Amino acid sequence: MAKTARETALFILERCRRSNAFSDALLGSAVKTSELSPKDAALCTRLCYGVLQNAALCDFYIDHYSQGKASKIEPKVRDILRLSVYQILFLTKIPPHAAVSEGVELCKKSGFGRASGFVNAVLRKISAEREHLPQIPKNDFYEYLSIKYSTPKELVRVLCQDLGNDFTENFLAASNSEALTSLQVNTLRITTDELLARLSANGISVKQHDYLPNCLELEGTGDIATLSEFNDGLFYVQDAAARMAVLAAAPKPGDKVLDACAAPGGKSFAAAIMMQNKGSITSCDLHDNKLSRIESGAARLGIDCIKTHVFDASHADKAFYESFDLVIADVPCSGLGVIRKKPDIRYKSAEDIMSLPKTQLAILSSVSNCVKPGGVLIYSTCTVLPRENEDIIRAFLEKDSRFSLESFTLPQPIGKVEGGMLSLYPQTHGTDGFFIAKLRALESHRRNHES
Fold first, then answer.
1. Homologous superfamily of 5-128 in CATH?
2. For residues 56 and 148, what is the distance between their CA atoms, to the nearest angstrom?
3. Which range (20-34, 99-113, 252-266, 349-363) has the least confidence?
4. Which residues contact 286 (CB under 8 A, 6 or more apart)?
5. Which of 135, 151, 193, 278 is most deeply packed, by most CB within 10 A?
6. Where are the beta strands (DSSP E) in 36-191?
């Protein structure tokens, strides 16, 4: 049944709240079920992500203007208020009076007509005073950042302790900004200029990435999978930071590559294209259903050098030992570098985050055995915490003398990474938060396979 962008956004926000579902997983099916146009699908996506990125801030204003009634607000009515407040304060193309009236209408459509007067009053106050809103108290800096950037206080504390207060605030601000969609061009089938022209001719807002070759950026596209260029296998979706991990690895035609934690397949696709579809890539994951997505993606892109394999990266098959020119270990992580695109990630428990380094080091140690003498090992994450990044590399090198860090070169303005380790940040590089380390196995040092 057809629904509006706001009705669909409200449905997704309610599902996220009630069942802890991830918004990005819900969006595609909800947009399709609601029969949204590309324009409305883009609005729905912006509304969902924007509300999740600013929920605590919206609540701060809602609670201030609800005259002591905040604790009595029905959860779904609060969802409607958040949706409307976000539009009033952040979406300049939507007139405030329209956001107010749409919020009241959503109440009535959702069976909460009795609350429509209350919603109308709160939204009108916020709309009237949007240039003179109450200030967030600054007596507790962690609490201040937690409200301003709608990030749990405990996570704010961890980020500040690891990265510093100013850096954390800049990171959180950038992580709450709207992210463009990065497309990597399948140069096996089309040139970047040709794809740019084809997308532009179809009325899509697209531009070349500022510094990464064969990368395009799209704005407000809705569901990428509906584009004919996607179905023709002319591109795949991957952030510039993840693409640069493969550039650092520098695979060559004819190489034998292991992508140890491959799903959803972007690094395998990037390596295959750099290798001109010549050589072999073994793309691994623990779960068959994730491997089937890699297989279908490779088929869409016309890549046949990728073979999938069920694989526990923390316990590498001995049959794989010293077999690969390149091993890529994009390990499970807290994902804090991608909260622009997956805002729900910020609500992970601190306990879950603290338990990750043990797993990450186990995976790196395990798959390192699969690198040939003289081969390359890439360790990467989509997080910004040193405990999951530099600290893992240092711990690994302390106990394994077969490897050393190796410098690599990326497009300017990044250039040469002398130390072999690079952290990328949205506020600095315009990418996801990401970490890349390149290690080289010694030519003369073979492992005792029985150890």
1. NusB-like (1.10.940.10)
2. 7
3. 20-34
4. 310, 311, 312, 313
5. 151
6. 181-185
Q: What architecture is the 181-237 domain classified under in CATH?
A: 2-Layer Sandwich (3.30)
* pTM exceeds 0.70, yes or no: yes
**What residues contact 68, with CB distance under 8 A and at least 6 apart?**
none
The sign of the CA dihedral 182, 185, 186, 189 is: positive
Cβ pair 410, 379 in contact under 8 A: no
User: In the chain, what are the domain boundaries?
Assistant: 5-128, 141-175, 181-237, 241-441
Q: Which residue has the tokens 């605590």?
A: 56
Domain 241-441 class?
Answer: alpha beta
370 catalytic residue (yes or no): no
Residue recorded with tokens 């990435």:
209
Cα separation of 381 and 23, whole Å?
21
What is the pLDDT at residue 451? 43
| 244 residue type, one letter | M
Which listed residue (44, 48, 370, 382) is catalytic?
A: 382
Encoded tokens for 371: 């690198």
Output Rg (C-alpha) for the chain, integer angstroms: 24
CB contact burial 350-386 (16+ within 10 A = b; e otherwise): eeebeebbeebbebbbbbbbbbbeebbbbbbbbbbbe
Count how many residues are written for the chain.
451
Identify the residue whose tokens are 């004919």.
228
